[in-house]
Amino acid sequence: MAHARISMYLPPDINPAQASIAYGCRALPKLNEELQSDDLLTRQKALMALCDLMHDPEHVFVAIDIGCLESLKALLKDSNDMVRIKTTEVLHIMATHNVGREGFLEHDVLLALSYLLNDPQVACRENLHLALKHVAQLPSGAQGIVNSGLIPSLVWKLQREEEEIQGLLLDTLASCLMVDATEALSSGVVPFLKQKLLSANNDIRSKAARTLIAVSIPLDGKNQVWQHDVIPILVHLLKDNVEEVQANAAGALMYAMVTTQGKYAALDTEAIHPLLNLLSSPLSKARLNATKALTMLAEAPEGRKFLQSHVPIFRTLEEDPSEAVRRAAQIAIKVIEWKP
User: Which of 323, 322, 307 is nearest to 334 (CA)?
Assistant: First the structure.
């Protein structure tokens, strides 16, 4: 006959490292109180619970409304490594939601995060850069990062961080420099990106080339790309074994070749042939960037003369599935066939 006994062990789905969550609308206020506790274990358990809850944007909204961001900002300065790591994890999860990103900007979380750029814990810095990457995906977020004065520090860290974190840094910089590249250019971002273009890591090469697209939009950026001899490297990357690298390299060249110096630097390194090869790339982005880059080269008499025999290739692109590629091909043909 069976006997009713109460086991001394916790149920298998109970996590002893996580705080017990109060019922209903009291849950988040209770956790916010525990974040401010003097007891280390209480703070750690509350952070563990928040990591789960912040995947729901409704919980993020409530957490911001009741002041959790202020509590989390204070915990970024905690002397305990695990507290800082879990705090940055909570914040990067919150930053995956629009409401979280907007809350960061309203409550000056970016400045608080910046104090951890040199934190000794790699996990802490990785979470920080994940949060910045998500914030930068909003135009207002990218502008907020620029306004916070963080860009020079991010450029400086590009040479010193772990490779995985370098990829996150490049994501953030690519978004922010589309808004304003001034501080990055004055901080020497072009030589740093030049070095990253030579990385053995496919992801780093691709993201470095994508960041150079943003860098090359202002005139100062175009000039620096030419002055630092980046154009020959970009031309070499047009033949890279990774299609995304090829596409981004063509995009960076497209902007860099707007200037006369950029055009002739590309012509001197025989950019036309690899760009023509990209017109048949399976990536529409690569076809578009290559078409626009060739249009830039066609503005030089030497480039226009060479490309006149290749007009039939551009004619085929007038039937491309991408409307942007079709329009770019039509413009390219007009430039190539133009007679003075």
Answer: 307
Rounded distance between C-alpha atoms, residue 202 and residue 261, angstroms: 29
One-letter amino acid for residue 336 of the chain: I
Question: How many other C-beta atoms lie within 10 A of the C-beta of residue 230?
Answer: 25
The position carrying tokens 């960076």 is 252
Residues 6+ apart with CB under 8 A from 119: 84, 125, 128
CA distance 314 to 327: 11
* Residue 185, pLDDT above cutoff 50: yes
At residue 6 the predicted structure's pLDDT band, cuts being 50, 70 and 90, is low
Is pLDDT of 1 > 60?
no
DSSP 296-320: HHHTSHHHHHHHGGGHHHHHHHTT-
Length of the chain: 340
Q: Are 318 and 330 in contact (CB under 8 A)?
A: yes
